[in-house]
Design brief:
The complex is a heterotrimer of chains A (245), B (242) and C (481). Chain A has 245 residues and is of the alpha/beta class. Helices cover 50% and strands 12% of the residues of chain A. The chains are: A alpha/beta (245), B alpha/beta (242), C alpha/beta (481). β9 of chain B pairs antiparallel with β9 of chain C. Chain B: This is Lactate utilization protein C.
Chain lengths: 245, 242, 481
């Protein structure tokens, strides 16, 4: 099966190994990957701040990169949500682009959703001997409605000790530019999330949205450094866990 | 109503809605409720099951109830009064009071109980001040709601000349006497009744109808539930199976 | 109280709220309690989402025909014997109320809980005219006694702990009892009861007004709404224009949504339906009922981008779930309408120059939207506000605009992105500490410090994903050969 990979700019810039883990998992499942070189960003960080006009370059560039694909798989749920469910709103006054966006909207999937719902695979043959808890990011879980897929996949990972995260659906406090516009509030939100994670006793926190994970990692590391959390909790994108053998 | 002001006010809304020539329509197609889930919920329950649902909800929210039959109503009410520690009792002038000869029962009781229970009958002829002040310092108020709702253990209390709003509100304890065959499964049926009742004769529609579900309650201090914020601190439903 | 009761800068309010440990803990606890209770009673109704869709449709039906229904309500309310008044704004509304009270030489009034009267600043106007105003809802009573603004729309006094309440009651009301909530509640019961019996006028809000019969309704647990509408001889009801339903059947749907969403209960202890004043021959109930229908900016929202906001039934479900409200409480918003609904509504009423910060007090996590019983797309409306400020009214700070515009160019073009991130990687790696994170001194750099003050931040990588993938592709081709 031929798929186009939407890598997410954040993974591209800061977490290239996460992207590679996704590539390896998908290839192992028999996917033939296309990674358009011109892709950059879905534009969400601009539209979430209200700069819809400025976001047009990013939005249109994304459409051009992916509109002719058969399937698009996004390594980030948040971007998949923006492309699938928000583009049509921003392009409502541009009929030609609107039509192109709508064509793309039906073809994009979040990484875990693609594996379970399109490939029909729930056991990717991974083995991971660690205690893991999982943060269900808002955009992918609540807004995009992808609730079951990551858990279906994790349950089938051999040797894993999956621990439920209390209030997993509560926002981690990232919110894109919220975290820099409202750092005081973001800080206390993320701190609460980090302590909730530490309280599970897990050594690994996973998720399928690298932006939330970056935010959580920043707080976990700081709280560990300051001694408020007793251990170093590893932050891993679900693709990294699924790529462990 | 200031007619000119009304026109101006409505016109502003019509304008915002982009109405043709800013005119308020003379007719609007009503809302179609037939697709709502409320129409079919609990539809297959029989009256016994409905009563069970009512009682279970009472237990869940901690509302006291006693069951009785018409022939034992008088003594059941007296027992309920005694259960809450007696005192001054207000009762209405509704048809049930005549039907079950409650006034006579209460008069007889007052003559024999040596002052543990005194009675006041709500009667507009006695005047507003007397009715309200006697009810305000009463311990127990007795009313006859006109129907019940099982899902929420609610009694539907209509007020009027014969039974004032204050009786189920000002005394410390409220005793509501409810016929079990008037209990509906949901608020849906109650609202249908009310719509019909209003439609049949708006001039006789009760000026005040209150859905009462247990005692007056608050949780405004640290979310601690306290009964008896302003109205009754305790409630008993007397369920009459006729 | 005016709609906006705290005019200090947004950041000042936020910092003060975050520093108040008791308040933060109280709101967190309340949220958790409401969250669990709400989920339990909603789980009882498998048809919940159908109800929600029905309720939203019903609200839309009313809003799309609001002129018709307001008119019908007014006619039927008058038929039932009420006197209907119309007010375009807060000043007109308070003046109408003041005229009614003066004509009756009212000296003392009792009020049940109504946010609308806080929106229009009724108490201040009446008190200035020498009329004694008594809030009777326990929380409102505490706030009035303490002179403090509400922190929540349903349970507005949560920011006071019992110890503090006892202290306030002792100092201002001569209370001598303990700090036991039951004892204090029953003290207020007695204190307020006297006033209920003596008041000249009772003031009520209205949760839903029934157009078909001219009926006003009040949802309450304490029974103070019943008191204010049963004992005083004159009743004044304040009604927001949008709070209309077509008929009695609609009340069934709306009550289903309101009670479960607001406090996680199947029903409120009392739901009063008042159709006109008491008739001649009734020994209690008001002898006259006035209904003041208030626009105060609502017609400006009707028919526009934000019309969905007028569906709101003031249940508070959005703030009971909001992770931002959780930490800053109602006081962070400085408006009588806090939380996500307040962040949408307050700028619509007061404009961006005074309330423009509020739409940014959200991570757009969508929990509010999901929890809203009338399906208001709250987080989308917050984005719409941001869009209007950034793109249409262009009221955002010029520096912010410049950063976003420049960044958007870079993130919309792979060549520029490549150049920019390469330069960034060099810079960040030059200054990074031994763990590969940004060093402490970067907390001095604006924007950057928002992050690095409380969280670690890694560096941009020299080899991006696109570079690794290109190598991977090359290797694969080699393997094939």
């Amino acid at each position: 099966m031929k798929i186009h990979l939407f890598q997410q700019c954040l993974i591209d810039m800061f977490y290239p190994h996460v992207g590679m883990a996704g590539v390896e998992v998908l290839e192992r499942l028999g996917c033939e990957l296309v990674v358009p070189k011109k892709q950059v960003c879905c534009g969400q960080m601009f539209t979430n701040s209200g700069y819809n006009e400025a976001a047009m370059d990013a939005i249109k560039n994304t459409i051009e990169c992916f509109e002719n694909a058969e399937y698009v798989v996004s390594m980030s749920g948040s971007c998949a949500f923006a492309i699938r469910d928000e583009y049509h709103h921003f392009l409502k006054d541009q009929p030609e682009w609107l039509a192109r966006a709508e064509k793309l909207s039906g073809k994009i999937y979040e990484f875990t959703q693609f594996i379970t719902d399109v490939l029909g695979v729930e056991d990717v043959g991974a083995r991971f001997n660690e205690s893991v808890t999982y943060h269900t990011s808002c955009h992918v879980t609540r807004l995009m409605g992808v609730k079951e897929p990551p858990f279906k996949l994790l349950k089938n990972v051999k040797d894993i000790n999956l621990i439920e995260l209390p209030r997993a659906d509560r926002c981690c406090g990232f919110g894109g530019t919220f975290s820099v516009k409202n750092p005081e509030i973001s800080e206390v939100m993320t701190r609460e999330k980090a302590l909730e994670i530490a309280g599970t006793g897990a050594n690994v926190i996973s998720g399928s949205d690298q932006a939330c994970l970056m935010n959580i990692a920043g707080m976990l590391d700081r709280l560990h450094k300051e001694g408020e959390i007793d251990r170093r909790i590893k932050v891993m994108h679900i693709a990294e866990i699924l790529n462990c053998r | 109503m200031d007619e000119a002001k009304r026109k101006q006010f409505i016109a502003r809304l019509s304008r915002a809605l982009g109405r043709d020539q800013e005119m308020c329509p003379a007719f609007v197609e009503g809302f179609d409720y037939s697709h709502g889930p409320q129409e079919t919920m609990f539809k297959d329950l029989n009256q016994d099951q409905i009563l069970t649902m009512f009682k279970e909800q009472c237990q869940r929210v901690g509302t006291k109830f006693v069951e009785t039959t018409p022939d034992k109503l008088g003594e059941t009410i007296l027992a309920a009064i005694e259960d809450w520690g007696n005192g001054k009792i207000v009762f209405p002038s509704t048809p049930e009071v005549d039907e079950y000869k409650l006034k006579e029962l209460f008069e007889q009781d007052a003559a024999n109980n040596g002052g543990t229970r005194t009675y006041f009958q709500w009667d507009p002829a006695k005047g507003r001040e007397e009715c309200i002040s006697n009810t305000a310092n009463a311990d127990i108020g007795i009313t006859f709601p006109y129907c019940g709702i099982a899902e929420t253990a609610t009694v539907v209390q209509a007020s009027g000349e014969e039974s004032g709003r204050a009786i189920s509100l000002l005394p410390t304890t409220h005793i509501a006497v409810l016929y079990t065959d008037t209990i509906n499964p949901r608020m849906t049926q109650t609202m249908e009744h009310l719509a019909e009742r209003y439609h049949n004769d708006p001039s006789k529609f009760p000026t005040n109808i209150c859905l009462i579900s247990g005692p007056s309650r608050t949780a405004d201090i640290e979310l601690v539930t306290v009964d008896g914020a302003h109205g009754p601190i305790q409630v008993t439903y007397v369920l009459v199976k006729r | 109280m005016a709609l906006i009761y705290d005019n200090r800068p947004y950041k000042t309010r936020i910092k003060e709220c975050l520093a108040d440990d008791f308040k933060v803990a109280a709101i967190k606890k309340a949220q958790d309690v409401f969250y669990d209770k709400r989920n339990t009673v909603v789980a009882d109704v498998p048809e919940w989402l159908d109800f929600r869709a029905e309720a939203a449709k019903l609200r839309d039906h009313v809003l799309n025909n609001l002129d018709y229904y307001v008119n019908q309500f007014a006619e039927n309310a008058e038929k039932a014997g009420s006197k209907v008044h119309f007010a375009f704004d807060d000043k007109e509304a308070t003046q109408i109320a003041l005229d009614i009270l003066r004509e009756r030489e009212a000296k003392m009034i009792v009020k049940s809980k109504t946010i609308l009267t806080e929106e229009i600043g009724l108490n201040e106007v009446l008190e200035e005219a020498g009329i004694e105003v008594n809030e009777t809802d326990l929380a409102e009573f505490i706030l009035q006694t303490a002179v403090s603004p509400p922190s929540h729309i349903v349970v507005p006094g949560l920011h006071f702990e019992r110890h503090k309440i006892r202290e306030i009651f002792a100092e201002k009301l001569g209370y001598t009892g303990t700090e036991n909530p039951t004892e204090m509640t029953h003290f207020v019961r007695g204190y307020v009861r006297e006033r209920f019996l003596k008041a000249d006028v009772g003031v009520n809000g209205c949760n839903f007004a029934v157009a078909a019969s001219g009926t006003c309704t009040i949802v309450s647990n304490e029974g103070n709404g019943r008191m204010a509408s049963s004992i005083p001889k004159t009743q004044v009801i304040f009604l927001g224009t949008e709070r209309i339903v077509p008929d009695f059947k609609a009340l069934d749907v709306m009550m289903e949504m309101l009670n479960r969403s607001a406090v996680g209960a199947k029903i409120s202890n009392y739901f009063s339906m008042m159709t006109g004043p008491g008739r001649a021959g009734e020994a209690d109930g008001p002898e006259e009922t006035h209904i003041i229908i208030i626009d105060n900016g609502r017609s400006g929202i009707l028919g526009g981008t934000f019309q969905e906001m007028l569906r709101c039934i003031r249940c508070g479900a959005c703030m009971n779930i909001c992770p931002v409200y959780r930490h800053i409480s109602g006081h962070g918003y400085g408006s009588v309408y806090p939380g996500p609904m307040g962040a949408v509504l307050t700028p619509l009423f007061k404009g961006y120059d005074v309330a423009g910060d509020l739409p940014y007090a959200s991570t757009l996590c969508g929990a509010c939207t999901e929890n809203c019983p009338v399906a208001i797309p709250l987080h989308e409306l917050l984005m719409e506000h941001r869009h209007i400020m950034a793109d249409i009214e262009k009221t955002r700070p010029k520096a912010e605009e410049a950063i976003f515009t420049a960044a958007a160019k870079m993130f919309g073009n792979s060549t520029l992105f490549d150049l920019g991130t390469k330069a960034g990687a060099i810079g960040m790696n030059l200054i990074s500490n031994k763990e590969g994170n940004m060093p402490t001194w970067t907390q001095a750099i604006p924007v950057m410090n928002g992050w690095t003050k409380s969280k670690e931040m890694g560096t941009l990588k020299f080899k991006k994903f696109r570079d690794l993938y290109a190598e991977h592709e090359k290797n694969k081709k080699k393997e094939k050969k």
